[in-house]
Amino acid sequence: MDELMETIIDEWIKGLIPILLPGATVLEKLDPVIDTEVLRAARNVKHVYLVQEQQKNVFEQLLEQDEWVLKQKALSEQEGFAKALRKSLITVVQTLYPSLVELAEQNAISIQEIDALRLVIRQILGAPDEATARFLLNSLS
């Protein structure tokens, strides 16, 4: 645990007595028996927190090494990138050929491969006219 977190927890422990004993007088707050019990409880809470942090770190390490999790993460990233490229394709079509937006939206859904999406975007950007762009979009379905 880093020093900042230790400091925060220690300050939290110091602040426990007035919170747990709001009606206590200053003398009662300074009572060594009360202080000892409250501090013991606070240290137990701190210990539980530290153990949970360690367990969380171990769990995160296991997840980072798990083959299935890594495959799912890669697949999710690829799907996210493909979705972004499909949106880019639609934006390009909307900018250059607004009348073809609906066609682009319908046909872009069918493309999952990132390289294919990149190619279509480049082709649409280089299309000399709307007829060529329409042909390219129709070839997607």
Q: Give the proportion of residues in helices.
A: over 70%
The parts where pLDDT drops under 50 for at least 5 residues are: none
How many E strands?
0
Total DSSP helices: 8
C-alpha Rg (nearest Å): 30 Å
The coarse silhouette is elongated
Question: What's the quaternary structure here?
Answer: single chain
**Percent of residues in beta strands?**
under 5%
The H/E string reads HHHHHHHH
Q: What characterizes the major β-sheet? A: none
N-to-C span: 54 Å
Number of domains: 2
Q: Could you say which structural class the secondary elements and strand pairing correspond to? A: mainly alpha
Tell me what the structure shows.
The chain is an all-alpha fold and 141 residues long. It has two domains: 3-65; 67-138, no CATH class. The protein is 82% helix and 0% strand. The chain contains eight helices and no strands. The mean pLDDT is 80.
